[in-house]
Fold these 2 entries.
Entry 1:
Amino acid sequence: MTEIKRASVLLAHGSSDPQWVTPFTQLLAHIREQLPQDGVRTELAFMELASPSLSDTIRRLAAGGCNHIDVLPLFFAAGRHLRRDVPAMLDDLQAALQQQGLAVTIHLHSPVGLEPEVARAISQVVVRQLS
Amino acid sequence: MTEIKRASVLLAHGSSDPQWVTPFTQLLAHIREQLPQDGVRTELAFMELASPSLSDTIRRLAAGGCNHIDVLPLFFAAGRHLRRDVPAMLDDLQAALQQQGLAVTIHLHSPVGLEPEVARAISQVVVRQLS
């Protein structure tokens, strides 16, 4: 029986503007602090315009022995990228890794912005800014 | 003395995918419920690929008599769009409206995703999904 070794990737859109990345690296640091020290390895990757890319990150994790990878999109909503491009890319990548003898299960989650607590926090901020 | 008539615009990126818009219209409805009934008029607009555009929305609000407009970006971070394109567009628009006799003050806020409560909610969701 193969031992399950999990990892997770926070997926952000990416931007050609280097300053854009900063809040995401801060968020990653904050999340790592809250996760158990011996828990799931958590990385940050970008869909385009910034590095590391999602595919490079997953290849690296797979090469390091991870065989269950959760991808958590830091998006407000799912559009073409998350409903078509990313699933297609992950399917191809999973098949390519399989051919290299790396059997990896990849689970693409719903965008975090769709979760009720995030929507609630956004509402609170907007209502406060307008009051 | 001119009476101040405020309005606000929630600015989302926009997508060619019609389903992408749904969570934002839900968020707008939720925010409108929480704001006082006699308070600031609040609209939703998109930077690209979806309508209404930010400029059309501001023109419409200005034509309706609004002279103080808050623009609140529903973004996780500020990249090229929010730091260059949008401010330049708003400056041009403000000058064009002024020439038409519509003096409008437009205030572009920081992205809501940078606010601590939103970042905290995102961390909570991610930690829960990974636990």
Entry 2:
Amino acid sequence: MTETEKENLLKLVIEEFIPFNKLIAIRVASYDPLVLTIDNRPDLLGNALRQMLHGGVIASLLDVIGGASLIKRYLDNNEVEDRSQVAEALSRTATIDLRIDYLRPGIGERFTATAEIIRPGKRVTVIRMSLFNEQGTLIAVGTGTYTV
Amino acid sequence: MTETEKENLLKLVIEEFIPFNKLIAIRVASYDPLVLTIDNRPDLLGNALRQMLHGGVIASLLDVIGGASLIKRYLDNNEVEDRSQVAEALSRTATIDLRIDYLRPGIGERFTATAEIIRPGKRVTVIRMSLFNEQGTLIAVGTGTYTV
Amino acid sequence: MTETEKENLLKLVIEEFIPFNKLIAIRVASYDPLVLTIDNRPDLLGNALRQMLHGGVIASLLDVIGGASLIKRYLDNNEVEDRSQVAEALSRTATIDLRIDYLRPGIGERFTATAEIIRPGKRVTVIRMSLFNEQGTLIAVGTGTYTV
Amino acid sequence: MTETEKENLLKLVIEEFIPFNKLIAIRVASYDPLVLTIDNRPDLLGNALRQMLHGGVIASLLDVIGGASLIKRYLDNNEVEDRSQVAEALSRTATIDLRIDYLRPGIGERFTATAEIIRPGKRVTVIRMSLFNEQGTLIAVGTGTYTV
């Protein structure tokens, strides 16, 4: 698969196949390095007066970029022939635990998530994630443990 | 305030004032003990084939019951005259960190969250939460640290 | 193996084979239910004026009871013939992540830890632990994720 | 206070005043940037065969560098006249929660911890820590939430 094919496949999985990702409109902004984004919307707020993104939306985006990192690693390390392989790989992936540190109020128009695999295990992978607003302010960080 | 007035006020805050709670339809099912629920819906799934609730929805509900526990404690411990006091109290509340352990697949029709304050500090409160499906299966547990 | 033989084997592993457990004098007080204890000592304090147990000692005891729970489960579920099997099982066990909530000052003469397996996975097990002083005051709780 | 006086005061607090730090021989290797070290010793092992540092020792060192970061910040931001002020500041500091991710086996001769304040709150501070061996291998990372 070419890089573009891999990006398109990841987009399909993250943006189309996972219903809740679609509801909150998570987007794959870049494949390598992997970047996900979410645009602020009135119905995603946790505090309407202060225009702050809901903590659950932040947790969702950070969890999703963890899973997306695992799919990307799978695509990069395997000769993928068709989509069913990816669906199969995805279905064997599960979040074991997820921790979010909310550092600053979730104020902004577009939020960007990045991730780094810090324990690349065969059975268990640990990933650290960061969430920024469009001004580059670090809003939240997270750590997730995943089985693969 | 009577118990019913307090419950109605909490319902208003949780179900109406917080936009994202409304999007995913979080409900206050009981005031004392505090119980929140969420009904499964096609657009809340993380895995459509296996009909599993998205991990971000689980994290959201657990975060929200943490905050709701703080509002309930505020209502129970203070003579609240009007809603603006509660809005004021709420705006001083923030999640510092949140940890979720995903124990079993989020399969079910209705999910129920309960919470217990395990560190009732003046400045920092730690709360443990649990999420069950309608058959009483424990799906996830969480711990949140909140400032008040 | 009889219950007593299993208890003696667990004692040997926890109290004798693991050097740091010996340094801080962790004891197996009961096999079923599993209970570990540690006695307060001047050199285990984090705050000598206030006679508080060091947070690292609390973390250590909670981590150890997580590992001990896994060994106990192994002993209960397998026909163990000799010690080398247990050593082998132990060497495949590792803590992936550990989270401690410090709820109250670690004041007391004897600290008691208990544990509960909340996600009994084949590859990944999640365990919740609690630490009490001799008056039954809950001092700290923890959650650990382990590979097995 | 000069930089050297501040470093000496921090050394005194971390290396001498806290009994358990003394037992496991935690050292302040550098004040700015703040670096703590611990030398491997037979009685600090969790697995004698594989010569691995005990997970509780790792958790201890990471917790201690979190607290040390708070003392350093206090020394840097206040005109400290005498030691009793620092003791007073220290006694108001407490770990709320601590999370450790064990990334690789704790193999090495000298372990080095560094820390970064990621949420510099007035009431609650969140700190991320890292632990390396003498070859620069990242062994563990942690996140702690502290009241000040």
